[in-house]
Amino acid sequence: MDRQGNTYTFIYASVLVVVVAAVLAFVSQTLKPIQQKNIEVARKIDILKSVNIQSTSKDAVQKYEKYIGNNSFILNYNGEKIEGDAFAVDLEKELKKKPEDRKYPIFICTVDGQKKYIIPVRGKGLWGPIWGYISLNEDKKTIFGATFGHKGETPGLGAEIEKPQFQKPFSGKTIFDENGNFTSIKVVKGKDTSKDPHAVDAISGGTITSKGVEAMLRDCLSGYQKFLKGN
Predict the structure, then answer these.
(1) Which terminus of the chain has fewer Cβ atoms in its 10 Å neighbourhood, N or C?
(2) pLDDT, tens digit, for every residue of 105-121?
(3) Does 29 score more than 90 pLDDT?
(4) Would strands 81-82 and 104-111 be described as parallel, antiparallel, or unpaired?
């Protein structure tokens, strides 16, 4: 075959594409278990962080087993426990369902002898998904801690949701008013929220992301109302 001809070039390029595709597919499948494990470790770090337990990729699994372990479950919309693994619930898929059809995972951790209820949340920011975990005290209405993450928010603006200065003010806020009505937490711009039990300050220059956090908390926490109001 003439190596200078078009036929040879076409065959050579086709074989090369097939070989490269096969190698990439093999590498992808080989690394998939490792990638999945890293994702699970990152989630455990965030869950622990919501109750102020710091961990790293090296000790997150051990600390998760120590403080939470199997102490998690799934709720239905009526606040009743149902079968399943809370850690395996895909919140992105669940949020596409009607609220009454969703699975609501919850994790329980004991800190200084006090029980904390950890609830995962997920929503939309300016450029992509945002997510996090909210932990509640034993009264099931006062926030103990909060942690948030994002995929592609703007550095210095919306990306500030992952910084302590945005997360810490959530501690001590309440998601129900004195009459037991669900209020969630508002993220307010240009107002002092230090004395408002149901609001925190928005990020300067990150209005859309801030409102995304507000909507995320309202939409996700509202499905837990019957459980949180129950005994």
Answers:
(1) C
(2) 999 999 888 999 999 99
(3) no
(4) unpaired
Q: How far is CA 51 from CA 100, 109, 129, 160, in A?
A: 28, 8, 23, 20
Show the DSSP H helices in 50-163 as ranges. Answer: 60-67, 91-94
Q: Which helix (H) or strand (E) holds 207?
A: helix 207-221
Q: How many CA atoms lie within 13 A of 212 on its CB side?
A: 24
pTM for the complete prediction?
A: 0.85
Residue 64 to residue 78: CA distance in whole angstroms = 28
What is the percent of the chain with per-residue pLDDT over 90, rounded to a whole number?
A: 77
With 0-12 / 13-18 / 19 or more C-beta atoms within 10 angstroms meaning exposed / middle / buried, residue 109 is buried
Give pLDDT, residue 16.
86
